[in-house]
Design a protein that fits this description.
homotrimer; 215 residues; 7 helices
């Protein structure tokens, strides 16, 4: 992890968010292909699931915030999602990958999207509770869409601290920003917290209590 | 029912719609928790379903009408949905509630959302057929989303006059508005009709004929 | 096919797109009713599925492109979808229609929507890759929504060159437009290619290879 050694304050916030969003798009497209690959989808169905997973969360965030949808005017995002999806397809088709490989890009994608979603909402002046929810929406909606398209109950609804990790990171980012910390460091701290909670939850099987109503 | 005794003409239309929308958000969040509680969701999954049920219909309406999404700039809606969802969670967890309790808030939510959706569409100059559909969308889409997230065929597709009640109320509201009746009274009449049809349909098991194509 | 004998260059592009979109709305509403008719939905559920199939693709395109949603300001679209849906309902209820009748309107709808979606994206200056994806989205999203509402895995994910046909047609339209061909002829060529590939794929059972990841 060399990231903390880079002078985060010197990177313009636009450049930082752009890089974070591209990385998030790529790993989420990969997770979409891995999930769709467990179903009898054809190549195009798989591409649709990959695009939905990669672009769904940010699209919903932008539509709700009434911003220009991030991948419409700049086709680098779309190209990144397509290439990442096809590369994953090729890898999975010709190699036997360990099932656990899915876990890390998915957690990294959650962290990246939470950060970019929260900061995008802040940048249009959304109040803090809404901004934190936008971080969560950006982080988890792609995965919800991926699972709905595969016709299964979204994994995040009973998994290991998925949305919870996203929300905790978004709140940390917001608290640090409110305390005057620069955007780069706030993003790093918030994103790291998401990753930490999610990976620890997977490792130690932390789950929120499952709730079933008395009938 | 003390409502008719209040001088509805004296209440500014904005205040009226704000109160109606907040009440609709609260009861729909409660219905989301009650529905999600029948599945093995964790606390966060339940919150997601509650928010989707409470905010989904109005969000779709605002996105389609290209208005600012109602809960983005004013976080009172989001807080109301969260608190109503958590309160319902606490109630259901520690008390044995009769199953039928679900029915009344759901019908009231349908009536409130139909009214607020129709009037919001009118206020941006949508033609009447579109405005009535926006009332129905606002009324039923939260419930459709709730059911899709729980991976079941939406209840409204074969229930007791659900969307039909919503549409009838929206049309009555539009007719009264066109006839010069004030917004408050038109809202009360339209909302009451929704509630009346829905509750009567539940009581007497009125259903639209089920249609199955010859194969 | 008399269409090629009409002087396509003489028709204003707005008129052409309007007619194409209305025809697409009508056939997609019909396909929604035919699909919903295989489930125990009531009349209203069926109308909802018909409207979602007819208006869903174009709505998603317009929301993503931040245009005014096409059926909001002009209720002719909504009326067309409703009438086409109800007419199909009446036909299917009182006649025994061959199952294969579903295939042609669905393919024509795909072609029409692909063309109108691609040209709408071009008209707001979207880059070509985004414009071609918008053609596909407009063409296939209504069908995805229809299938999700019926709680089944979208047919397009493992059918006979559905989205592929749409994408090929969108790319041809874009190439011809870039080469200076008029909008009318580019639309005709692109739409015909969609129809040709889709019908040939159905006839000869061309499918993309189905991909299943090694577990």
């Amino acid at each position: 992890m060399l990231v903390p050694m880079i002078d985060l304050d010197a990177i313009p916030i636009e450049t930082l968010l752009y890089g974070i969003a591209l990385a998030g798009v790529a790993v989420n497209a990969a997770s979409g292909v891995l999930e769709a690959g467990r179903r009898p989808f054809d190549l195009f169905g798989m591409v649709v699931v990959a695009l939905a997973a990669a672009l769904g969360g940010g699209s919903l965030r932008d539509v709700l915030l009434d911003r220009t949808v991030f991948w419409i005017s700049d086709q680098v995002y779309l190209l990144t999602a397509l290439l990442a999806g096809l590369a994953t397809f090729a890898l999975v088709r010709y190699m036997r990958l360990p099932a656990r490989l899915f876990v890390l890009p998915d957690a990294v994608g959650l962290a990246l999207f939470t950060v970019s979603g929260t900061q995008a909402a802040l940048s249009v002046g959304a109040p803090w509770l809404v901004a934190s929810l936008m971080g969560v929406v950006t982080g988890v909606f792609g995965g919800i869409l991926r699972d709905l398209l595969c016709n299964q109950v979204p994994l995040i609804f009973n998994g290991e601290l998925y949305a919870t990790a996203s929300w905790a990171g978004a709140l940390l980012l917001l608290a640090l920003s409110a305390a005057g910390v620069s955007a780069g460091w706030a993003a790093l701290a918030g994103g790291s917290l998401v990753l930490l909670i999610r990976l620890a939850a997977l490792r130690y099987r932390w789950c929120l209590p499952v709730f079933t109503a008395r009938q």
